[in-house]
Amino acid sequence: QVQLVESGGGLVQAGGSLRLSCVASGSIFRVNVMGWYRQAPGKQRELVAIITRGGSTNYADSMMGRFTISRNNAENAVYLQMNSLKPEDTAVYYCNADVFSSMNLDRDEYWGQGTQVTVSS
What we know:
- This protein is mainly beta.
- Helices cover 0% and strands 62% of the residues.
- It has strands at residues 2-7, 10-13, 18-26, 28-39, 46-51, 57-59, 67-72, 77-82, 91-101, 106-111, 115-120.
- The strands form two sheets. Strands 2, 4, 5, 6, 9, 10 and 11 form a seven-stranded mixed β-sheet that branches. It has a four-stranded antiparallel β-sheet with strand order 1-3-8-7, with no helix packed on it.
């Protein structure tokens, strides 16, 4: 089994910053694409950013220039640096990872439990 553990969420004022972390653990042979998604109350879950093992990134338009996704392959970790936060960024943020399992000998996608980000103004 594979689990993703997130940290770094919290309450911040508009214009402030937060850094989210997510670490994958368990029966892992290789972690492939990793990403961050978010879901506000009453809204669909949406892509924030994704990153490949080689460091190629893709951002939603509203996040470009404010958010930065990065990863540490040795630690099976992905990070999201969030700057210039706006009240509209308030949501539960979820970590996602495409993983080849050393136990099951197959590939699957896994999700973290989610971490709350609240931006006040």
